[in-house]
Amino acid sequence: MIKYLILLLLSVHFVYATPVLTPTWQLDVNASVKDMVLHEGTLVIGTDNGTLKVYNLKEQKFTKTIALPKVKDFMGDLMPPKVFSVDTIENKYVLLSDSGEGGYVNVWIDEDGKTTQIISAKDKKVIVKVRFIDSTHLLFGYLSNEVALYDLKKSKELYRVQLSESKFSDFALNETKKQVVFACESGVLNVVDVLTGHVVKVLQGQNLDNVHMVDFKKDTVSAAGQDRRAALYDVNTGKGSYISSDFFIYATGLSPSTKKVAFTMNEENTITLYNRNDKSKIAELKGQHSTLNSIIFEDEQTVFASSNNSVVMMWKLS
Question: Is 0.85 surpassed by the pTM of this model?
């Protein structure tokens, strides 16, 4: 009788165990990845080797590489700059890189094969992240937790607003690019109107420490917290909840429908997928061995992720 009971319990455990998935595809970019976006079937990847690389998923090959000039390090040696942030729109690319001078950055625009510097160290800007709003406007996230809208035609910022005294961590635009959520070391999230820079909603109470990464889709925000809380907010109501972790949470991503949410939940850099509504586990994605810096859903069944190594991975849920 006891033997049958044990077998029954093992069978139940097997049926309800969280599936553990390994990558179905991997891409080595031969340099540590610092940032990655998915745009119309291409992966746009910024590296610590001074390059932006574009990989066409359908053609299964790199179709473009942008290499930036070397900069002097603190010893005076010429080194490839780290490309911290990248984006693309309408065959135009933006690259944010270190300048080697006092923590200030360079920003470059590549269009029709020509790379033009629009911000240099002499401008003394400490920008951490950049994204296109449209083909003529960029959104900047400053280390000082300032949001700025930059006009490429006028070569100037249309506004620059400080959201708090806390250090900036990350921002994420919604699908329309009309709103953006800013995260900082305080755990408070600010939802900002992109056109004006006005704060339209403050999300707080779920993270009590630095939020490393955020995502924003369909009025839902996910937040990866240093306080070991995987937070979720409804932007309309401002209400939130969280999932507890045993380790710092560095990365998050929402599926297009927001029915699924992903968080890194342990020191093995495992990506755990949850049903957003009831927070039940869907699967664990294994394979990455460094701290995650992006989790991107292509659709409800396909997940890409990069970390502080050279390998981009993809998992298929079914």
Answer: yes
